[in-house]
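Supplementary Methods, section 5.1.

A reviewer requested that the exact input to the structure prediction be made available. We therefore reproduce it here, unchanged from the version used in the analyses.
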Amino acid sequence: SEQVKGYGSIAEGHFVAVYAVASGVADCCIAPRAAARCFGLDFVPLALERFDLSFSPESLELPACKALLDVLNRSALRKRLECIAGYDTGHTGEVLM
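The structure derived from this sequence is encoded token-by-token as follows.
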């Protein structure tokens, strides 16, 4: 741990952590691929993480929620997320009950 620069530091978010690496304050950090790409850093994936968007059953009937789900289901958005940030969009927009 003493040989890894920045090991004892705690960053206030992914971009702060990645900036520390990019500026030489730290040797490495844990952050998403998108953050590493913003600073031109190499990236080694450690794990896949799933994020869910939660709604109440009543909310799913609101026009705004329907519009959001419509956008999430568009293939253009999925392709962009995959290219820009390396996200797996295989289940993006699925409604799970």
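The chain is about 35% helix and 0% strand. These observations are discussed further in the main text.
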